[in-house]
Design brief:
The protein is mainly β. It has 4 helices and 19 strands. The protein has a 5-stranded mixed sheet with strand order 2-1-10-5-6. Strands 3, 4, 7, 8 and 9 form a 5-stranded antiparallel sheet that branches. A 5-stranded mixed sheet has the order 12-19-18-14-15, with no helix packed on it. The protein is globular. The chain starts with 15 loop residues before the first strand and ends with a strand.
Length: 339
C-alpha cells in the first residue's frame, strides 16, 4: 500500500464530498447519501504504480524513486457508483449525456481532491464516458474500503496509473485545467526522454508542459518462481506462473516464456481474466507454462501481447528514464540449481 501523506482518519458513511465546476456550482453529499440514492455497481481492476519494476532499470542508470520490483500492482473488485451517474444527477438537467454537457461547459479534465490535500486529474473523456468505468468507490472486495486503501471514498480510474485513483476523495471538479501540484504538474509522473540522465539535464525544464502519465503500457510479470527459488539439479523443465495486463483496457491474447534468451518460446496457458468485456479488460490475466530448460543455472524471460499489438521491449535500457516509469521490458526470473 502506497500513500503520499499520513493516512487521514476514517469518518465512514458520514464522510462528505462535493461535486463542482469551474463556474462555481457545487453540490455536497455524504457517502451515506451515495449508498442511499444510487444503485451500486462493481468493476474489477488491476491498480499499478507507474513506477512498478523501477528497480530493474537501475542496472542501466540510477533512477529517482522507490526501487520497486514487480509487486507494485494488485487487483480488487471495487463497488460504488459510476462517476458519470453522480455528475449527471447533481450538475446537469439532461442526465443522459454528462460528457457532452461537461464539454459544453468547457471542461477538459476531472480533478479529484483528497482529504490529505493531494490532488490529481484525468481527461474528461475518460472520467465521464460509459466505457471508461470510472467510479466513486466505497467497497473493496465486498467490504468497506480500508483506510490505507483510500476509504471511505476512493476514485477508481481503471487502466490508469495508480496515482490517478485518488484516495479519500472530498471534492470532484470539472475543470478546463489539469490539477495543481507535484503529482500532476511536477516531474513525478511525467513522460521524459531517455537522454535526460542527470539533475543537470533537468535544469530549466518546464515539467508542467510535459504530458502526464495516464494509461500504462502492456505489462507482464512472474509470480513463480520467486527470487531465491532453486531448481533441483536433475529437473529438465520448470513450471512458471505470472500475470499480464494489456494497455488501455485491451485484452491479453498471448504470453510467451523463453529459457534461452528469446531464441525459442513456449506459449503459456491463459487462465483467469479471459472473460472480460472487449475494450474493458481492466484486470490482469493470469498464465502458466511448463518450460524445458538446459543444464546449469536457468534464466527465464517472458513477454505478453495485447489486442492492440502492444510489444514489450527486450531490456530496461530500451525504456529507461530518470524517474524509472513505465518499465515494461521482458521480466527476468533466475534459478540456481540445488542438489
Amino acid at each position: 500500500v502506497r500513500n503520499h501523506h499520513p493516512v487521514p482518519l476514517d469518518d465512514g458513511d458520514a464522510h462528505k464530498f462535493s461535486v463542482t465546476t469551474d463556474n462555481g456550482a457545487e453540490v455536497s453529499l455524504s457517502v451515506a447519501d451515495l449508498k442511499k440514492n444510487y444503485s451500486k455497481t462493481t468493476v474489477t481492476a488491476t491498480m499499478q504504480c507507474s513506477g512498478n519494476r523501477r528497480g530493474h532499470m537501475n542496472q542501466y542508470g540510477k533512477t529517482s524513486g522507490t526501487a520497486w520490483g514487480s509487486g507494485a500492482a494488485s487487483t480488487a473488485e471495487w463497488a460504488g457508483v459510476p462517476l458519470r451517474v453522480v455528475v449527471a444527477d447533481l450538475l446537469f438537467k439532461d442526465k443522459s449525456a454528462p460528457l457532452t454537457a461537461a464539454k459544453a461547459l468547457g471542461a477538459k479534465h476531472v480533478i479529484f481532491e483528497a482529504k490529505d490535500d493531494m490532488q490529481a486529474s484525468v481527461p474528461v473523456e475518460k472520467a465521464l464516458s460509459e466505457l471508461g468505468d470510472c467510479m466513486l468507490a466505497y467497497e473493496m472486495n465486498g467490504q468497506p474500503i480500508p483506510r490505507d486503501h483510500g476509504g471511505p471514498l476512493r476514485a477508481i480510474v481503471p487502466g490508469y496509473a495508480g496515482v490517478r485513483n485518488v484516495k479519500w476523495v472530498q471534492r470532484v471538479k470539472l475543470s478546463s485545467d489539469e490539477a495543481e501540484g507535484a503529482w500532476q504538474r511536477g516531474m513525478n509522473y511525467k513522460a521524459m526522454p531517455s537522454h535526460w540522465r542527470t539533475k543537470q539535464d533537468l535544469q530549466g525544464v518546464d515539467f508542467s508542459a510535459l504530458p502526464s502519465i495516464h494509461e500504462l503500457p502492456v505489462q507482464c510479470a512472474f509470480s513463480s518462481p520467486a527470487p531465491g527459488d532453486a531448481l533441483p539439479i536433475d529437473e529438465d523443465s520448470v513450471e512458471v506462473k505470472g500475470w499480464a495486463l494489456g494497455s488501455a483496457g485491451r485484452s491479453i491474447h498471448r504470453v510467451e516464456v523463453s529459457a534461452d534468451g528469446g531464441e525459442t518460446w513456449v506459449e503459456a496457458d491463459l487462465e483467469e481474466g479471459l472473460d472480460q468485456p472487449y475494450g474493458r479488460a481492466w484486470a490482469w490475466t493470469t498464465w502458466s507454462a511448463e518450460v524445458p530448460v538446459g543444464e546449469g543455472p536457468v534464466e527465464l524471460v517472458a513477454r505478453a501481447h495485447d489486442l492492440g499489438g502492444g510489444a514489450m521491449p527486450r531490456t530496461p535500457a530500451d525504456v529507461w528514464n530518470i524517474r524509472g516509469l513505465n518499465n515494461n521490458s521482458w521480466p527476468v526470473a533466475r534459478l540456481e540449481r540445488s542438489n
